[in-house]
Amino acid sequence: MPRPLIGITTYVEESTRYGVWDLPTSLVPADYHALVQAAGGAAVLLPPDEPGRAAEVLERVDGLVVAGGPDVDPLHYGAERDPRTGAPATVRDAWELALLAAALDSGTPVLGICRGMQALNVVLGGTLVQHIDGHAHTPGIAGWHPVRPVAGTRYAALVPEEAEVPTYHHQAVDRLGRDLVVSAYALDGTVEAIELPDPAPWVVGVQWHPERDKDTRVMAALIEAAGTRSPYGPPRTLTGATTR
To answer: For position 235, what pLDDT does the model report?
Structure first.
């Protein structure tokens, strides 16, 4: 049987040097596709596109990973910009929020990672805390801390124990989006995982970076859900999913 095809979002860096070239480049860290492959899937990279084409793109993949990256623009959740919030990533926001809304409408399995989890919360009407301390220390180097699963959730069924995870972020989920539940917390109470509970399609967000870890359980569950998804079944539409 073919491996489930998992789309991973990428982003454009306007100046990237390789060899003799310095060019705009669509990229994502290689750890993302390596984790998909290690967990049993085939990876395809999804560069930014017109938001109106999101549903068309999702018809070609079995599951979606929304990668980590810069802060989601507060305008998407109706908040004033905190001075510590990063510069807007306008093209990336538009594309990834459109992909998430289309995935929710079509029942496509989703894993949101760090920024991807925050974008998932926002597309379902949730809000974010624009700055917290203690979850990013040395620039460019992930830290590690324990997260505790919430009993009865999809995440707890996969990882029932307290687990050390690699983390690097300064924002977090505040008000939960529609239909979402919290499935893991950090010891300081920060929301570390969110999900749509059964019987909804498989949709999970984690605040940490599983692509920097050897634990494949969460990604393997996404791939399993992608492999069993019927392309002929009726889609489940979540009322209010929006790209604003």
So the answer is: 38
| 137 classed as catalytic | no
E strand or H helix that includes residue 94: helix 90-106
The burial class, CB within 10 Å (0-12 / 13-18 / 19+), for 133 is: exposed
Give percent of the chain with pLDDT exceeding 90. 82
* Nearest of 74, 164, 171 to residue 115 by alpha carbon: 171
Across all residues in the chain, what is the average pLDDT? Answer: 91
Would you list the DSSP string of 98-111?
HHHHHHHHHT--EE
Please pick, among 33, 114, 135, 192, the residue that the annotation labels catalytic.
Answer: 114
Q: Give the C-alpha separation, 115 to 233, whole Å.
A: 30
Is the pTM here over 0.85, yes or no? yes
Cis peptide before 199 (omega within 30 of 0): yes
Catalytic site residue 209?
yes
| pLDDT of res. 241 | 54
